[in-house]
Amino acid sequence: MRVGVLCSGGDSPGMNAAIRGATLRGVDVHGFEMVGFVDGWRGFRDGETVPLDRPAVRGLSGVGGVFLGTSRVAPFSSVLDEVDFDAFRARVADYGLDAFMLIGGNGTQTVASILHDHGVQVIGLPKTIDNDLGGTDYTFGFDTAVSIASEAIDRLRTTGDSHRRCMVLEVMGRDAGWIALHAGMAGGAQAILVPEFPESLEQVCEWVTSVRDRGRSAMVVVAEGFRLAGADHAVTRDGLDGFGRPRLGGVAEQLAPLIEAGTGIETRATVLGHVQRGGAPTAFDRVLATRTGIAAADAVLRGEWGTLAGLRGDRIELVPLAEAVGRLKTVPEDRYAEVRLNFG
Amino acid sequence: MRVGVLCSGGDSPGMNAAIRGATLRGVDVHGFEMVGFVDGWRGFRDGETVPLDRPAVRGLSGVGGVFLGTSRVAPFSSVLDEVDFDAFRARVADYGLDAFMLIGGNGTQTVASILHDHGVQVIGLPKTIDNDLGGTDYTFGFDTAVSIASEAIDRLRTTGDSHRRCMVLEVMGRDAGWIALHAGMAGGAQAILVPEFPESLEQVCEWVTSVRDRGRSAMVVVAEGFRLAGADHAVTRDGLDGFGRPRLGGVAEQLAPLIEAGTGIETRATVLGHVQRGGAPTAFDRVLATRTGIAAADAVLRGEWGTLAGLRGDRIELVPLAEAVGRLKTVPEDRYAEVRLNFG
Amino acid sequence: MRVGVLCSGGDSPGMNAAIRGATLRGVDVHGFEMVGFVDGWRGFRDGETVPLDRPAVRGLSGVGGVFLGTSRVAPFSSVLDEVDFDAFRARVADYGLDAFMLIGGNGTQTVASILHDHGVQVIGLPKTIDNDLGGTDYTFGFDTAVSIASEAIDRLRTTGDSHRRCMVLEVMGRDAGWIALHAGMAGGAQAILVPEFPESLEQVCEWVTSVRDRGRSAMVVVAEGFRLAGADHAVTRDGLDGFGRPRLGGVAEQLAPLIEAGTGIETRATVLGHVQRGGAPTAFDRVLATRTGIAAADAVLRGEWGTLAGLRGDRIELVPLAEAVGRLKTVPEDRYAEVRLNFG
Amino acid sequence: MRVGVLCSGGDSPGMNAAIRGATLRGVDVHGFEMVGFVDGWRGFRDGETVPLDRPAVRGLSGVGGVFLGTSRVAPFSSVLDEVDFDAFRARVADYGLDAFMLIGGNGTQTVASILHDHGVQVIGLPKTIDNDLGGTDYTFGFDTAVSIASEAIDRLRTTGDSHRRCMVLEVMGRDAGWIALHAGMAGGAQAILVPEFPESLEQVCEWVTSVRDRGRSAMVVVAEGFRLAGADHAVTRDGLDGFGRPRLGGVAEQLAPLIEAGTGIETRATVLGHVQRGGAPTAFDRVLATRTGIAAADAVLRGEWGTLAGLRGDRIELVPLAEAVGRLKTVPEDRYAEVRLNFG
Questions:
Q1: Chain segment B112-145, per-residue pLDDT in tens
Q2: A286 close contact with C: CB closer than 8 A
Q3: Are residues C235 and C308 in the same domain?
Q4: Is A264 exposed, middle or buried (0-12, 13-18, 19+ CB in 10 A)?
Q5: Considering only CB atoms, which chain D residues are within 8 Å of C216?
Q6: Do residues D41 and D122 share a domain?
Q7: Could you tell me the pTM of the whole model?
Q8: What is the ipTM of this complex?
């Protein structure tokens, strides 16, 4: 059994641990031959691979990023409708591959599902810091991102309190507010703004003011995809400001002056950015990723093609890819209500 | 509705977040009156309480330990068979309490279950760094303990590698090896020794030797409750060594010289001890604990007495206490097999 | 002896430890009476003070920010030339103060020096994350800021490597590049750009390209005050872009597209922002700040007015304020040369 | 110019950064040829070396331990009085070495000084987590050890407070109490016990009791080399207890029951052990070590043999080895007095 491992999309802490888990289990226990594609589909396209074995993955469980590299290169040279799957399968045959492990988020797992429908033997390993993938309780990388954002909140609080300022922290989450929700809850934020639930500027200002009235300084956590409710306010996502000029700033930089104007409280924005996805994974993500890799290797052994190795409670379970992909997992109303009732 | 909050047993990171979550939800949203007992059953016995409201729990989500204090004082002055539950209920009535939130591990939740059987309106909040409680995927405090132990492994590895030494790290886990299993997996340990699965000294030495033969230095993680298989070896738990003298050291200090003698490889022991249970909780534990507290407050509102607010997947669910207590949740064979196959 | 403690300017990790050290030494050992002004000169102006004693500073050595608050309110209501120092001294007498401890950076210590010249008994405690103050080897807060920036570099590296991207990190340092220099050296950055030493865009691009040519991904650390050498490039500081529009982004956001255009290598900017100054101080800063506070209390006892408690080697020494203030301590050529020779 | 790099003694965070700094400067800037000896004098004896160049030191500034390995193997096969220095110089000539960089603590730098007296061209790089070496304000590794110990104190405090227990933390420091002094000060310990200043058990118990009387829980930090003052108490170092049995425990494990007996306060001991010397160095140590390596390479270029690259204030200066070695740098009375006055 010869297995190819390929990463696609943004990197996520834990990818190395997942590849290490899959390799140790696949090669040493099940006797697979394994290869990794360098920079994802780019390596697949260009024929760039590295052999995966114990020495190749040594010491990697706690290392951030992904040593194989990843890219946003697409797997097919044409649009999906017209993909020549015979050519794709021929390319797979060129590599002598019996099976594929695809490590990626929603986009990648959708591709995995399509490949499975066209007879490619594939197992999906869910990965995204955004946690917006179905079929799994959590994706590896998410806990690390939340942990970094939570530490940033702890830091911003002390400087906010010292200056009686409102601090606004922007975290990742274009379509799903999971990082904002968990980090904000962990840090005791007084308002958590997520894409799923627009709030009006008046409401946000009321929360900030009520915190000040209790003698504290407000901490607002906002996901990058959040939009203010109502038409009068300018926090938009189209990349242009009201003068038709390209925007440089994110939602936090747009929101902070609006809050300051609306409350009279000095307000400062911080955009956490790329540090959220980098660096050593948390122990939680290392364990989740390692177990995901092990489960994927076992799934290859048993031929459970077209599945995703997802976390269900404290177990890794194989979920049909078709069930997991297609729709984004967003923050449900009850989870938002858990925190919103105590905002301010 | 007047609710008493009481902690019992060892402290666990996240207890403050749980009390904060329960208080903000209970007092501000549901309109409860809430009091905390100082030092657990000691405060209950001695009449020492503090009011719980928003100012009392301010800024506590990220603070380790528990501000109410906890103790191992027992709730009843006599053995359970002869407990005068009428007297106990009278004491509860003295405090004017309608309901109890009990934050604790196996022992405490067993008490909670008994109290429920005798008509006390009680909700359990599961807490233990050992993760050995049923009815929940994970207990808060566990992720923090694993995180600290995992960081210790990362540190010990570099000094072990520099000196070509075998490093043995002892972590908590008297009856269940969860901390050793997760931290060892996160840190890529070459042997993880847990109470549930005795291994022979020969086997342990073989793993350590095989690591050396690959040019590396072995990292062995051992739970305090681990015992060597077979009668010939002296890692015992009875507190006496072979000369009938009291032992000072733990299992790591006993194991290290045996490994050194058995392999010829210099071996050093480290006992992580109390640092495992202290300090700021991880973001994961803060979120889990906060949600547990919120769910407990909601359970009080709905009168779902005799239940435990447990984590099931990504949801908090109320589980009958009777189902959760009584047996320890230990590491199952398949979880140990996940790692054991790749030892050495 | 009645001593007033006052903080001014931006907050800096270690301020609480300094106040704690001064208070424990001043009150418990020397028998002073001490008061703190809330929000710096604002509290002085408005008569808002808190007593400082052991309970007031309990547990504060590891807490970020400053519990007294700080502000940028000026000490005098008029410009310095026309300051009515008699009125100022009368205000000091109103508070019954014999001496002042002023905790602040260059601006604050300049004020301290002027006050001393006009007969106010004052001791300066140097504080700034920027490390740009004379009279001391290092200011407390600097090590924490460097530590946070260094950790951000570690995180950005792994995501940069995974995507073969050049990562640009902007850190604080408007006029002095100390944070960039130390964090960049700690993180092994391939280019460190500081205000003191402009470099041309061509030079920066050459460094980035040479890193890529060695098969790695470049890490560029840039202080906010850095400007490109030469007139052709647009990284300016006047707050307007080439179209006369207000700039939202900082130097990193301006530099990144220029590097990408100049090298053809995908480049991403991160602005670290306020997280640099917040949160728990490092052990180094806690010790430095505590010792600074102790030395300041001793200086008050001995009446060594008009001095700054500065670090010299491993000792705290009292330096005349007049020597310490007036000029910024910037990165000298030999320190920049230490790193520049190995850029790329 | 061909330069050998050799580490001796225990590992210390920053050693990799020092070798990296020396290599980048020596090879890339000065054009040296450089080799490292594997496992210190063992590699020298056995002829095991690795070439040092840019790829060899890539990414090492933030990595703990030392990739070359280190050992306690002695440099000479005979006692120093009878060392055949001709043979030693011949061995150096075999390797074609013009100069040596010796990275180590007191013992190693004493050897360096002797070698210099016998005509070997040597530069010393001071390294020890204990900070007990003369000729430098601080040694790299110390700040990391202090940082780890300080974090352990933060953790132990929360569990100590929760249970109203006295916590005793043992840190490294056989002859010098620097780690205990700095970590204890950073963590606000209520008693710091160092080898330089014995205290009686009565005094220690009085401090612990006074903390309890203020409603807090005492934190005691003790260096491994501390001994109780007076003959009646049993904290000894001879490896035997009062029954002539080998002691397993360290000073904390001996002290804790004495404190508990003397105060009636439940007391727990933690021995930090090897985690103090492992893992990623702090930014401070990375910078200090890198600069030390750079300065050592420059010293080789200029032929400043027989010197140690020490930190003096914010500069690295070359100090004659003869001045630096021979006596241990211990905690002076004024530094101990800084903290002792506020114990309890």
A1: 999 999 999 999 999 999 999 999 999 999 999 9
A2: no
A3: no
A4: exposed
A5: 58
A6: yes
A7: 0.95
A8: 0.94
